[in-house]
Amino acid sequence: MTLPRLVHVVGAGLAGAEAAHQIAAAGVQVVLHEMRPLRSTEAHKTDGFAELVCSNSFRSDDWENNAVGLLHEEMRRTGSLIMSAGDTHKLPAGGALAVDRDAFSAEVTARLSSNPLVTIERGELDGLPPDDWENVIIATGPLTSPALSTALAKLTGEDSLAFFDAIAPVVHRDSIDTSVAWLQSRYDKKGPAGTGADYLNCPMSRPEYEAFVDALLAGEKTSFKEWEASTPYFDGCLPIEVMAERGRDTLRFGPMKPVGLDDPRTGRWPHAVVQLRQDNALGTLWNMVGFQTKLKHAEQVSIFRTIPGLENAEFARLGGLHRNTYINSPRLLDRSLRLKARPRLRFAGQITGVEGYVESAAIGLLAGRFAAAEAQDLPSTPPPATTALGALLDHITGGHLIAADDERASARSFQPMNINYGLLPDLDAQPTHDESGARLKGPERGREKKRAMSRRALADLDRWLCTGAAPVIKQSA
Fold first, then answer.
1. How far, in Å, CA of 349 to CA of 141, rounded?
2. Cα angle 397-123-367, degrees, rounded to a multiple of 5
3. Which of 99, 203, 401, 419 could form a disulfide linkage to 104, CB 3.0–4.6 angstroms apart?
4. Cα–Cα distance list, 190 to 83, 283, 289, 448 (Å)
C-alpha cells in the first residue's frame, strides 16, 4: 500500500490553518509553514495562527436568510476548525458571530500544534516552494512576503492585483460614557451568543453628524507611496472618510445607520449612530463597527472623541491601513485551485480573490480537501454550484463560465468578493407561497427566496458529502 504523499501548507492564517486541519483530518501528514515571528507584517501583532487583524466578527450567523450565515453552516457540516474555534469563543454580537480574537487564535494554534499529523515549521519562504515539494498550498494571504510575491509574479507572468484594507479602532470599555451610549442590538435581534443588547450605541443629532462628517473630510490622512496611489479600495471595507467623500449621507446609510435602535433618552431613532461591538471575552475592549480608517492617529483621537459617549475614549488600538494582494484566479487557477502553470502549487484564502475571514477559511477548507485527496490518489469533485462553497469556488476560478470569451472577460474584471446570494444559481421555480400556504407579497417573497436557496444549498451539500464526490474526512477530536 502506497503511503499518502506529504502536503506542505505555506501560511498559518485562517485559510492555511483550515487547510492544514482538513488535510490532517483526512489522515495525511502536513507541514505548516509560518514566517511569524521571525518575520512579521505591518498588520499582525502576534505569532499565533489565524490571527484576526481587522474586525473580530465573522458577520451574520443566520443560515436561512444570509449568505455568510449559510457559509458558516456549510463549513460546520464540513468539519471546519475555524468555525469550531469560533463557536467555542463566541461573544455577544446580535445576529452576528463575533469571537474573542486572542482566545480564538490560541485555540486554533493549540489544536494544530498538538495534532500528531501536523508539523509546524517557522521561517520565511524566500521564493517559490522547493521543487521536491510535490503537493503545496500557498495560503500566505493578502500580506504575502515580497520575496514570494516577486517569485509568483515571475512564474505567472501576471502582475499581482492590489487593494487596500483598513483597520478599525478598539476602545477600552470603561472609558465609554454609558449615560449617553446604550446597549441594544438592531431591532433587539439575538445572535449566537447574544441577548438582543449586544452593541454599545453612541447617538448623534443632525448637527453633531454634520460636524463629524466635516471633520472626517478635513482630517489629515495617511499619505501613500507613489506606487500605492492608483491602488483601489475594496468596496466592502472602505475607510469612513472615503465613504464620507462619496456623499454626506453615505455613512448614515452605511455603518452609522440608526434604524432599529431606540435612544432610551428620547424613545426615537437618532439621526445617526456609532456602534461598538465587544472585542474580547472579558468585555474590556470594544471595536468601532465599520470604522476602518486611514486618518492619522492624532486625528483619529481628536475626531472620534467628538462622538457622544466617546468624549473620554481611551484607545487600545487605533485604525490603520495595509495593502492586500490577490492573484488573477480565473486566468491562473483550475477548478481544484491548482496553478495551471505549475499544478503542484495550489492557492487558498484571500490571495485567491475572496474577501472576508470566513470566505478565506472556506477556500482553505476546499484546498485542503483537494490536496488530501490528491495525496491519497483519490478522486475529488468540487462542491455543487448551488452551495455557498461551490459558488465561491466558481467565482474565483471562473467555473461557472463556458465560453472562452466569457472567461477572458471574467479575468479582466476580476475583483475580490464576499459570499452573496447573487453568486448562487437562481431557483428553478420562484417561491409564491409560504409554508402555511399564504401567498407571498413584496419583501417576504425575497426573504422566502433566500430561505429556499439556503435549504437547497444544505441539501446539495449533504449529498456531496455523502456520495463520495467529496474527499472522505476522518474528523479529529
1. 6
2. 20
3. 99
4. 19, 18, 17, 20
Query: Based on the domain organization, do 170 and 69 belong to the same domain?
Result: no
Of the listed ranges 72-81, 169-178, 345-354, 440-449, the least confidently predicted one is: 440-449
Q: List own/partner pairs for 225-234 with CB under 8 A and 24 or more apart.
A: 228/164, 228/323, 231/162, 231/163, 231/164, 231/323, 232/163, 232/164, 233/163, 233/164, 233/166, 234/163, 234/164, 234/165, 234/324, 234/355, 234/415, 234/416
Question: Quick one: average pLDDT of 211-236?
Answer: 73
For 199, the grid coordinates are 452593541
pLDDT at 316 (0 to 100): 82
Peptide bond into 37 cis (omega under 30): yes
* Nearest-angstrom CA–CA distance, 356 and 339: 22
Q: How many independent structural domains does the chain possess?
A: 2
Same domain, 352 and 304: no
Q: Is 91 helix (H, G, I), strand (E, B) or coil?
A: strand
Joined together, the cell numbers standing for residue 388 give 455557498
Q: What is the mean predicted confidence (pLDDT) over 418-433?
A: 84
C-alpha cell at 154: 515571475
Assigned C-alpha cell, 265 = 433618552
Interacting residues of 446 by C-beta distance below 8 A, sequence separation 6+: none
**Do 135 and 43 share a structural domain?**
yes
Residues 170 and 309 occupy one common structural domain: yes
Structural domain harbouring 277: 166-323
Is the pLDDT score of 107 beyond 50? yes
- Residue 434: exposure state from Cβ atoms within 10 A (0-12, 13-18, ≥19): middle
**Buried/exposed 142-165: b ≥16 CB within 10 Å, e otherwise:** bbbbeebbebbeeebeeebbbbbb
Confidence grade of residue 192 (pLDDT, cut at 50, 70, 90): confident
Report the alpha-carbon distance of residue 68 to residue 457 in Å, rounded.
12
Residue 309's φ and ψ, nearest 5 degrees, are 95, -15
